[in-house]
């Protein structure tokens, strides 16, 4: 589905506790930022000490050499500003991926080589020495900057696997983050998957997804409002799981209007995978090289395998579209079309599978009544023992159980004529 992000700012009072940046603690609550910093105090102290020594060395060098005829104190201030700029640049580099770093280094090297060629050409001209030096320095700065910027922006196109695992240690040292889509949050099955510990590590919830959920929860339409509130409840449930780390991504992309494209760009920046059940988002992200975890594909993969000739017991819920057909459903929502079961509605019957049809929308099973099972064992008087059939109460209970299956699980049922296919 194509969704456009609205610029309307939603109130944060109805959002879950994850509306503020933070991580989940073992007791299921957002950890206090002070506690997080205290846990990482050792690493922070090491970084601070190294940066302090670097800044002090720069200030001492500027005060001692005072270049360009500057006074010692003025030169010390200039070198201190230079040290601060270098430290800020180093902090920004730590957030960049290995691919972007490699692309930036290669681009800077190519820009420097281009500047050397320009200086070599300028050396054979009659331009005055001062002007030639200014042009050479300008070419060096411009070409190096262009190479650095373009290389960093195009570094995501690099395939590090071609280096034979040389850079594999960076990825293997951490778990791949997962970015949740709005559709998979509203669907609700992601909470059950996380609770079963099929997903672990860092769960990234974009801020623009929270805003979209808030808008849906505040909708005037009753159905949309219910779906939005269910999505917020699912996020609260995920927050309380100790095996997950929930992070709120504050990055927004004002120049991108579509939420799906925002998710793709966010996943590319975090080197993460997108968790969704949106077919269109799945295809677009895959084409752009982003990993996708599709909940619908997982549900289809977990459906039991049924082969022709196998026997099973099903509950006939309703009449089929074709003559003398009955329709039943398995626990996972798979439709079962049974020939000769029109008169056995609201009864449990044994059937033999005749064929299985797999389509893009789901799987359909066709079968016929197992006559041997229906005849049952013979008693001593030669009369067949009665086949156990449920009463009206059991039929109602089965119907309620069928209705209680989430719509997302029953959605793959194909809408095709329920006729027996050869």
Short description:
The protein has 16 helices and 10 strands. It is α/β, with parallel strands linked by helices and 422 residues long. The chain has 3 domains: 17-32 and 174-301, 5'-nuclease (Rossmann fold, 3-Layer(aba) Sandwich); 34-163, no CATH class; 311-410, Beta Barrel (OB fold (Dihydrolipoamide Acetyltransferase, E2P)).
Provide a descriptive summary of the structure in words.
- By secondary structure, this protein is an alpha/beta fold.
- It folds into three domains: 17-32 and 174-301, 5'-nuclease (Rossmann fold, 3-Layer(aba) Sandwich), CATH 3.40.50; 34-163, no CATH class; 311-410, OB fold (Dihydrolipoamide Acetyltransferase, E2P), CATH 2.40.50.
- It is built from 16 helices and ten strands.
- The protein has helices at residues 33-39, 41-65, 72-94, 98-123, 129-153, 168-172, 182-187, 189-195, 207-217, 222-239, 259-270, 279-287, 295-301, 371-375, 392-403, 407-410; strands spanning 178-180, 201-206, 244-249, 273-276, 292-294, 311-319, 325-329, 335-339, 348-359, 362-369.
- The strands form two sheets. The chain has a five-stranded parallel β-sheet with strand order 3-2-1-4-5. Strands 6-7-8-10-9 form a five-stranded mixed barrel.
- A hairpin with a 5-residue loop joins strand 7 (325-329) and strand 8 (335-339).
- The radius of gyration is 32 Å and the shape is elongated.
- The two termini are 35 Å apart.
- Mean pLDDT is 76; it is low at 4-40, 169-173 and 377-422.
């Amino acid at each position: 589905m194509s969704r456009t992000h609205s610029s309307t700012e939603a109130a944060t009072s109805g959002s879950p506790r994850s509306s503020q940046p933070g991580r989940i603690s073992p007791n299921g609550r957002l950890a206090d930022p002070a506690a997080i910093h205290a846990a990482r105090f050792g690493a922070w102290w090491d970084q601070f000490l190294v940066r302090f020594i670097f800044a002090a060395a720069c200030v001492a060098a500027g005060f001692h050499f005072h270049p360009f005829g500057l006074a010692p104190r003025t030169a010390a201030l200039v070198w201190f500003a230079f040290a601060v700029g270098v430290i800020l640049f180093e902090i920004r580099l730590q957030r960049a991926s290995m691919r972007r770093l490699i692309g930036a280094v290669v681009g800077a090297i190519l820009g420097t080589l281009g500047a050397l060629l320009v200086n070599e050409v300028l050396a054979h001209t009659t331009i005055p020495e001062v002007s030639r030096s200014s042009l050479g320095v300008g070419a060096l700065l411009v070409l190096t900057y262009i190479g650095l910027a373009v290389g960093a922006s195009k570094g995501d196109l690099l395939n590090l696997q071609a280096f034979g695992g040389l850079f594999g240690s960076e990825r293997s040292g951490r778990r791949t983050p997962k970015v949740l889509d709005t559709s998979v949050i509203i669907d609700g099955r992601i909470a059950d998957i996380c609770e079963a510990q099929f997903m672990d590590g860092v769960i990234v919830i974009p801020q623009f997804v929270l805003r979209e959920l808030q808008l849906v929860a505040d909708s005037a339409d009753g159905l949309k409002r219910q779906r939005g509130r269910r999505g917020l409840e699912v996020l609260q449930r995920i927050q309380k799981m100790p095996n997950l780390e929930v992070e709120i991504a504050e990055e927004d992309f004002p120049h991108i209007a579509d939420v799906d494209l925002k998710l793709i760009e966010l996943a590319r920046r975090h080197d993460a995978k997108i968790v969704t059940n949106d077919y269109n988002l799945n295809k677009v992200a895959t084409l752009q090289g982003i990993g996708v975890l599709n909940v619908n594909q997982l549900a289809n993969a977990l459906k039991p395998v049924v082969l022709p000739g196998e026997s099973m017991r099903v509950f006939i819920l309703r009449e089929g579209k074709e003559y003398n057909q009955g329709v039943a459903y398995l626990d996972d929502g798979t439709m079962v079309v049974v020939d000769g079961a029109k008169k056995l509605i609201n009864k449990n019957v044994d059937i033999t599978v005749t064929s299985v049809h797999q389509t893009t929308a789901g799987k359909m099973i066709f079968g016929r009544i197992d006559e041997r099972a229906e005849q049952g064992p013979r008693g001593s008087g030669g009369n067949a023992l009665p086949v156990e059939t449920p009463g009206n109460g059991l039929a109602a209970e089965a119907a309620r159980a069928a209705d209680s299956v989430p719509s997302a699980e029953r959605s793959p049922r194909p809408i095709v004529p329920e006729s027996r296919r050869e």
